[in-house]
Amino acid sequence: MCGIFGCIGDEKDTARITLSGLKKLEYRGYDSWGLAWEQEKKLKVKKQTGKLPTVVKLPNTTSIIGHTRWATHGGVTKLNAHPHLSCDSQIAVIHNGIVENFQHLKKQLKKKRHLFKSETDTEVIAHLIEEEVKTKNLNQAVMVAFKKLRGLNAIVVLSKGQIVAAKKGSPLVLGFGKQKYFVASDPSALVANTNRAVFLEDDQVAMLDQKGFQIFNSKSGAKVTPKVQILEWVIEEAKLGKFRHFMLKEIFEQPQVIGNISRNYKEQVEDLAGMIKKARGTFFIGCGTASYAALAGQYLLSRIADLHVNFSIGSEFNYLEHYLNNNSLVIAISQSGETIDVVEPVQNAKKKGAKVVALTNVLGSTLYRLADHKILLGAGPEVAVAATKSFIAMVSLLIYLAYQVSGRGEEARVLLTKAEKNISLMLKDDYINRVKRLAKKIYLKEHLYVIGRGLSYATALEATLKLKEVPYIHSEGFAGGELKHGVIALVEKGTPTIVFAPNDETHEAIISNAIEVKARGGYIIGVGSKYNDVFDYFLPTLDVKDASIVTNVVPAQLLAYFTALNKGLGPDKPRNLAKSVTVR
User: Fold this and answer.
1) Which CATH number goes with the domain that contains 214?
2) What EC number(s) has UniProt assigned to this enzyme (predicted)?
């Protein structure tokens, strides 16, 4: 999940461009950062733990690579930060992925007297290349070394005025502008400097120098003709404005996100509804927040369109895809479009002939390029690691879709407009203060439970995730009916329990579950359109029928945010997490 950026060309602005590009990629990891550059024909390295500072003093250079890390192998230390060097300090390597056979490779290299300074799997790559470059040029050495790595990896190598990049699974994109050439793990890091890009495919190696770049097949060594794409979009610059944190800013942007979908997605939703009607088996897949949107989609199409669709967590879909065929439709949902646990099963599904639809927020992402049909969520840049407005976009789109499949698309637009207005009211000071008071009551609690039924079960799971991710509360979400099957044993006196109680067919049953929890001493926090005496605290929402999943999740988002502030935590970049999960 690490961020990669490299630049080669004339000395003007090369270092500054690399630092700026790395800043845009910090969502991929912020445990540590590092840079390697050439100075007087020698490699220099600067690296440190923590987030990338705004200013890093660097000399002018013609070639430089940089990295922001999300730790996999080895702790968060300066020694484990990338780049990693060969024994002779002539080769620097940055890496995204996991070298699954690194222990075996490391043993072999130690026998050849290679000395290791870190605990990472990445350092193995530098020493492998060092062995091969004794008898080969750098490009050939990287190809041979790369073929020895097992797993999904992207590497960028700097040595003697050249940058060589290779990928399998993890994304890499090349860019070229005036007298400069770039490599990055995301096109968003390139567009400030160029709109001309080449997306590397799996098992390809690119060699960059001051004259340009060449691409080769890493297995055969054959030269590949690059397919240049023009990035015909502008990556929006996310700015805080009046807000203290991006998470709160993005919560406040949610009414506009819903409004955009209700007013501008008619044609796209109609096309997708037609595809679902023709398919012989439709599957929703997603990970994390996107998986709860996918689960909601299963409920929505069942109750609104009387249609059975299948749902799977992306990381488990590889074990459920055996019955896919050329009549199957896979709808993959991912904010970033780079989540490997969605990208990999999509690749497998395509091999079986299935049609793939991507619902993603990032134009040009791996999932976007893989899909046969794509719909951009249109949520705008989401900087905070914890997803908020992208979830609202996903679910709003699925509500619209379910109604369109049943031939009632206009009803969805009316409901979404009501939800848009309701959330706008919830973002007024009086409601925000109500949530703040609740945050002060719960922020010292170690455990918290969330229950819901039907569509609200998906809401409960998403609310739970936010309370885990942002304020680090041990929170568990359950279907209300499962309480009696063991879960209620966890409830103690004063245990906060959020109860999603919309005005639908689940209302009486979920209130009954709330009463059961209260009888064991639980502190009941009700969310819904109707107050009930069982609630110790109430966060009201309007009754917007099937769109209640959109409005009801907002109080939980706000609660997670303000609880984190009470605990002195930074809500935008929670510990151990990254925005895009690109390793298995």
Assistant:
1) 3.60.20.10
2) 2.6.1.16
